[in-house]
Amino acid sequence: MLNIERRTFLQATAAAALSTMVHPTVASGAEAQGPFKVPPLPYEFSALEPSIDAKTMELHHDKHHAAYVKNLNDALKNHSQVASMTLDEILGKLPELPEDIRTTVRNNAGGHANHSMFWQIMGKDGGAPEGELKAAIDADLGGLDKLKEDFNAKGAKVFGSGWVFVTVTPEGKLALVTKPNQDTPIMDGKHVLFGNDVWEHAYYLKYQNRRPEYLKAWWDVVNWKAIGDRYAAAKSGKLTI
Ligand code: MN3
Fold first, then answer.
1. I want to staple 168 with a disulfide (CB 3.0 to 4.6 A). Which of 13, 95, 112, 234 is the partner?
2. pLDDT tens-place string over residues 157-177
3. What is the pTM of this model?
4. CA–CA distance, 134 with 26 (Å, rounded to integer)
5. Which domains does the chain have, with CATH numbers?
6. CA of 17 to the centre of ligand 1 (A)
């Protein structure tokens, strides 16, 4: 009898210990505490193979992006006014933010915006630019082949970590721009049509130091349908991040 009670007690204790161990892990999952969340990847980690390998996608989305969101939420813990702003508002008003969180917010809100855009504009069977988007690429960037060539050249030249972007005005005009670290053209009051991440974490597992090879292969997983939707949203004033 005593032995059975003891066993039951031990089982109950073990279950309680397990539940206190498991519960906080679930409840406080990477970014759960705060206004910003990591958007789910809209495809499998392996969907962009062979251009981008599944392991890179998993680490990039679940670890790197999640860390930007966690750091951003942590920085805003005691800044409820900033925490109530949208990501675009925060990025457009960095100089007005409290100085003690400005750099942290710049890096991590930038990282959150850049990666949220990045997952969205990639995918399988991405098609080709069509309609007004194609016309704008032809008119402003010299056509798709020239865009790829110039974009890759700019991306290859980013020293250290950064991004290469195509920006879009409300009138639909396109331009190429690079940014260091997790900066974004949104910080200059511009809109991002799309961009590519040239941080080593985006390609190093598969390409090591061969960034130009990654830049070239990346075009195979660009989702022109999603970019076309962003182009239309930019022209109707509805484009965010
Ligand atoms: Mn990245």
1. 234
2. 999 999 999 999 999 999 999
3. 0.87
4. 45
5. 2-120 (1.10.287.990), 131-235 (3.55.40.20)
6. 37
